[in-house]
Amino acid sequence: MAPVNMRVNDDGKFFGRVVAAFAGAVPVLLFGGVLWWSDARNADKQSAESITRIEKRMDAVEEAQRKQAEQAAADRQKLAELNTTVQSMNKTTDRIDRRLETLYDRLVGGPASRP
Prior knowledge:
- The protein is mainly α.
- The chain has one helix spanning 14-108.
- Keywords: Membrane, Transmembrane, Transmembrane helix.
């Protein structure tokens, strides 16, 4: 094996050798840079599309929640109206029941003994 020579620029061709060494590396670096830029651009595009899809889904969920809330409010209103109607009917039924009892008592001749 030949001894290692530490003299770099003995013949004065150092810069020529450096340029030759980097001349092979520059196309590889440029090609790698172009690929990296292209991949980053595609990743950004896919991320933007994913975000758009997620936003559309969120909008759909929010719309469904809003509709459900409106339906729940309408159902509560209907239940309140039904409750009022039932209470009114109960009062009317109680009033009719008392009048019928009064008529029965008059017909029979006195208050009926109730257990």
